[in-house]
Specification:
The protein is α/β, with parallel strands linked by helices. The protein is about 25% helix and about 25% strand. Strands 3-2-1-4-5-7-6 form a seven-stranded mixed β-sheet. The longest helix is centred in the middle third of the chain and has 14 residues, at about 70-80. About 35% of the residues are buried.
């Protein structure tokens, strides 16, 4: 029987299909940094727009999510499209992260602060972490989580991944014209 969190995400993704969402900005705008082959992990993948993108770029992708319905849909989609993506149901609070297993890890719109050390150790040497998530500073058009525990304080992502070498960082907060630019989110890329 599923747990309440799994049921919540199964309901959210019930009527959606893989391939229906766009790749996240942190990955799409920085795809030129990706290796031409290797392994990747799309963590808390949802409909795995990022994982699908990585598989289409030639990486062997694992996509982890708590929603068993999403996992089933993703595996069917990957088989139909003949892409190298394998989805598995994972409760990330208890998941075992393999050591030095991934050339790329993507974490988008998911925040579990206690996982940062596990994520870093799961990267291969010179592996890249692509991260994009919500900030506590929000504009009137904010549509992310209402619980501030699921949003980052200013520069918090830099602290969480201080064990990595900074490659790209963008956090515009509420500076300047809030109708333009990247608002309500932070983008981060780090290299092991």
């Amino acid at each position: 029987m599923s747990n309440p969190i799994q049921t919540k995400w199964n309901n959210i993704y019930q009527d959606e299909s893989p391939g229906s969402r766009l790749v996240d900005r942190v990955l799409g705008e920085n795809a030129h940094l990706l290796p031409t082959n290797g392994t990747a992990l799309d963590l808390a993948c949802g409909l795995a727009a990022n994982g699908i993108f990585l598989a289409e770029k030639g990486l062997d992708v694992q996509a982890w999510d708590i929603s068993d319905q999403v996992v089933r849909k993703l595996n069917e989609f990957a088989h139909q499209k003949d892409i190298s993506l394998t989805a598995s149901t994972q409760d990330l609070s208890t998941a075992v992260f393999p050591e030095a297993a991934f050339d790329v890890i993507v974490v988008a719109h998911f925040l579990e602060r206690d996982l940062s050390d596990k994520i870093i150790s799961a990267l291969k040497p010179n592996g890249l972490l692509f991260c994009q998530t919500f900030t506590k500073d929000v504009t009137p058009t904010y549509t992310g989580p209402s619980n501030p525990d699921f949003r980052l304080a200013e520069n918090e992502l830099l602290q969480m991944y201080s064990g990595l070498r900074l490659v790209v960082y963008r956090e515009e907060s509420l500076l300047g014209d809030i109708q333009q630019g990247l608002r309500n989110e932070v983008l981060y890329i780090g290299r092991k």
